[in-house]
Design a protein that fits this description.
This protein is α/β, with parallel strands linked by helices. The chain has one domain: Nucleotidyltransferase, domain 5 (2-Layer Sandwich), CATH 3.30.420. The chain has 4 helices and 5 strands, in the order E-E-E-H-E-H-E-H-H. It has a 5-stranded mixed beta sheet with strand order 3-2-1-4-5. Strand 2 and strand 3 form a beta hairpin.
Length: about 150
Amino acid sequence: MITLTSNKYRLIYGVDPDSKAHGVAIFFDGQLKELMMLTLVELIEVARVDRELGYKHTLFSIEDTTANKFVYRRNTQSSKALQSNIAMRIGMCQQSQVELMRVLDSFDIPYVLHKPTVKNWADEKALFMKVTGWKGSSNVDTRSAAYMGFLAAK
């Protein structure tokens, strides 16, 4: 993991980790270029191809799901079964993030972690579109990923 002191990275992958597919936003020279949902294998393949194309100044900007407690106040449920289900899903996302970080470490690809925030763009589509100028489709995961990329790109 690195600490951002200056933005020397031309290609930034914003990532919202998830157990099925990560929300991914790709920024190039500070501009949002693409949003997608990718499995770990697909994401690493995209990064590998970008490296082969000569994009050496690459950074992954990842939402740090490991900073979450398993069940926090807004997820408190009336039944223990529902609360357990939420805790398991959070744990699966955390494991997905850890696996992504292990792969990035093995390829010497730098990354930075950002604590989750309720002020991200996941549920704020209009704000997301206004700030980024994005006109295409998006979902809560790709908007969250875009926010993570935006934090590293600014």
